[in-house]
Each structure stands twice: as structure tokens, then as C-alpha cells.
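Q: A reviewer asked whether we had any structural model of the full assembly, not just the individual parts. We don't, so I'm hoping you can provide one. Inputs are below.
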Amino acid sequence: MGIIKAKQLVHEYIRRDEEGNVESISTALDHVDLDVNAGEFIAVLGHNGSGKSTLAKHINALLSPSEGTLWVDGKDVSEEENVLEVRQTAGMVFQNPDNQIIASVVEEDVGFGPENIGVPTDEIWKRVEESLGAVGMLKYRHHSPNKLSGGQKQRVAIAGVVAMQPKCIVLDEPTAMLDPNGRREVIRTAHELNREKGVTIILITHYMEEVVDADKVIVMDKGKVVMQGTPREIFSQVGRLKEYRLDVPQITILADLLRQSGLDVPVGVLRREELVEALLREAQITG
Amino acid sequence: MSIILDKVNYVYSEETAYRIQALRDVNLEIRDGQFIGVIGHTGSGKSTLIQHLNGLMKATSGTIYFNGQDIYADDFDLRKLRSRVGLVFQYPEHQLFETTIFDDVCFGPKNQGLSKEEAGLRAFEALRSVGMPEELYYQSPFDLSGGQKRRVAIAGVLAMKPEVLILDEPTAGLDPAGRDEILDLVARMHKERGITVILVSHSMEDVAKYVERIIVMNQGAVMFDDTPREVFRHYKELESVGLAAPQVTYLMHELKERGLLVNTEATTVEEARQSLMEALAGIDAGHTDIHV
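A: Here is a predicted structure for the entire assembly that you could use as a starting point for your response.
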């Protein structure tokens, strides 16, 4: 079994009127099956309201399934006694860094989590140093978080999660509020944690460019998983992605247009380097 | 008719240890009918700048003229200015508060002193222009999706019939289709009604695609103020201040460095396609030197 496994997972948001009668039910997750192996980097795409965040909140036991089962590292999240353990296995990073930072000094903010679960003081400091190092923010340890840039704040928030030594980190649109530099910093940090510490990463995003280096992409629509595959497999289906209100990276769009105009460019180009090579080849051959 | 900023400075927490100069000697002219993009890293002064344009913040020094009138003059009506220069904040859906979508959009025009009927007409028109289906008008705005809520919030500002529409990162957190819908809507308002649009954005691709002029803010000062083509020519300087150029611009530069003679000024997918087709056609005809 993988580190995250969902079997026929259903989540319904139920609205009740003042008397407590059910007014409406909306199904945010509709019989989702999922199997994520430890150490994988998974990207989740889907339009607003497709169920991505609801799925993320289940992985962290912030929500409990209406039907079906979700196991995180073998533990059923709907069992009350598993909740704390599940939250330590799967850490979560949200969209707005300002909502996640609580202390007035960076290192204290990062130490908050481990302190809360009773880690001995020496060990806390060790973890604080390690996690700030892992996100490249060690030299800011004595700074005040409110003086940091958006990307730096978000990396401190990630360090706070890393200090809990989770096997898996779920990032729910961590770059939506960041400038281009901040976006790059955060995505690079996620990849480094994945590569160097073997942390399983679930990245939810609306930026198609952030997905090209993931091991696997999952596309959600109306609470269902509708596509699964490598970034290349997913982004070679432009028409289908558009139906799900999604897009493909700008480089992929350009490559498609050039192919339609008669150039010999392969299908599913994702990165700039690939397109550069293809075009240089084309220039050489025809020249 | 324009907004002119003359040596505008703004200082937060002056005379304290936390003094921050958010705007430094900003001189700008916002001419009628322009579509302008404002870019800059977090904390570069973008939001402070736009809040000066409708008088929400008062400059520490310097002057702002709206159609020739000093907005800080005693007899200038700042309330009127705020309805002529409409500001859509970040995450404007957080400011929805009425029980129905229609009432929410009526709030602005009613506040302007319009009668209930007039305000209602304005709300209809604004909701129609943002493409809100009529059957939703009398439902709660809180049941809508993120993108729809944002459209209602924008309708609330449009209902005041502003001459200048300022949007602070209107697409943050929206899915790609939602992003296109909002930006296409804004572009249509600009084209059909001729209103001036100022778009604050972190997406270089969006800015390149839509605007005719880019103002780059850095450390409270205007770093560049030019057409997208000219601004993105300085992509290395932009990187040094936390920004970037559109992805296709990088592609073109890389191709040129590798010996393919392409136009590095392309900032949109379509421009890149044209330039590449021309460059490669030139090779076919044997007109172009290749050093691969």
C-alpha cells in the first residue's frame, strides 16, 4: 500500500436550515480512488470547486470522509485515535503565508510545532536549524517574519512543517499570492525536499508551469479524478484540459502552434530546453 | 483628461524606528483610455501606489492631479473621485456582504446618492456585462464559486460607472479558465467603454498579452515605464528585482544565443510563433546564416 491510499472516497458538504433540516448536499469528492507511493512528487490540477482542497484536507484529517476510506501511511483517517498521527505524517501548507505564521521571530515560528508535540528542547533547536537550512532560510532565523518577502514567508511556513518531520507534505496553492521570484523559490524548495529528504509531495496549483517536473499529475473535475499520468501525457491533451477549465504551459501552446504551422516539433513539449533543441534541429535540417 | 502624479512620496510610520518609504518621487501620467499593467515584487509599492490614485491614501509629499485638479485641495470632492476611479482590491469577494447578489451590486451606486431605481438599473447593467446569469441575481453571493464571486465584486465597482478601473491582482487563486474570463472581461470593458484600466499582476504572461504600457515598481520608485516590448527587453534587470519576462521571451533569447536569428522582442505566444516561422522560412530560402 502507498503512503496515501483512497478507496471510493466521498465527501459531501451538507447545508442545513435553521431547524436543522437538510437544505442541500453538494458532493465535493465523488468516489475517488488514489494511490500515492512514498517519495513521489504528485501535482493536482483542477478548476476552482473541483474538489482539490477538499481532498487535501482529508489527507491531513482536517475533514473526515462521508463514505469510503482514506489511509495515510496505513492509518485510517476516520478513526479518531489516528488523527494526531496522521497530522504528523502529512503536513500542510496553505495559500496565504500570513495566515500560517504566528511567532515574532522566524526560528520560534519554526519551533512551535515540535514544541507543541513535546519534543525535547535540544532536539527542537536541531530540527529548527535543519528545517530552516532545508528551505534556505537559515540566515533569517533571528529575523521578524513580517519583514520577509512573500516567498520567504512561505518558505518559513514550509520549514515549520518540515520541523515536524512529516513523511508527506501537502501544499495547497502555495504560490497563488507570490511574485515570480517567490513562486520559483517555493517550487524549488518543494523539489529539494522531495529529492534530498525523500518527502512525498502533493502540490495543488493553478500554474501549469509548476507541474512540468512532477512525477505524476492528477486532474480533478466535479469531485472525480478524471486524468492521471506523467506531465507529458497530461499536457499532450490540450483539448481535454480546456474542457476541465485548465490550460497547458505557454511553451507547450507555442510548440503546438508551430507544429500546426508545419514545423517538426514533437507532441507534449513541456520545457524551454526541449523546444530550443527541437527548433535548432529543424533549423539545421532544413538549412 | 488624466491622472498626474507629481513627485509623490509616501512614508509609513514616519518618525519611528519602523519608518518605511513606500513611494519615492513617483512621477506618472495616466492618460485616458490606456490599458496599463503594474508589476513589481511583493513590497515594491504597487498597492500603495494604486491606493493613492483614488485618494484612499494621502501622499506624505507631492501632488496628484485628476483632470487638472489637485485632489488634495480643500475644495476637491474626494468622494466623487472614488466613484470615478474604481478600485477592485485583492480577493474582492471577501468584501461581499449583502444577502443577494443584486443588492450587493446596488450598494455602490446607492452610496453615490442614486435613487433605488437608478441603482437597480446600474446593477442590472453591471451584472449583465460581467456575464452573470440572471437566475442567480437574487441568490446569496456566498453560494457562488470563487470566480463568480469575483465577478460580482467587479460588477459592484462597475455599477458606479468609473472612468478608471484599477484591479489589484484580480486573478490570484483562480483556475486558468477563470483567469482568462476575468481578463477578457476587463479587456472588453476597456475596448467597448473606453475606460482606463490599471492592472496589478504577478503574471508576466498576462501583462504581456493584455496591456499597452507597463509600469515596473521597485523599492517604491518607478523603475521602468514603457511598452511591454521595451520593458521585457530588460529581462535581466527585471530578474534582479524579483520579476521575470514571459516564458516565450526567454525562449527567444536562448534561441538567439544558440545561433538562430529570431526576434527577441516577442512577448506573447503569437508574436513568438510569427517570429519563429519567419526565421525558419528564411533558412528554407537560404537567406539566413546559421551558426549551430
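A: Points you may want to mention in the reply: DSSP finds eleven helices and ten strands in chain B. The domain at 2-228 of chain B is CATH 3.40.50.300 (Rossmann fold).
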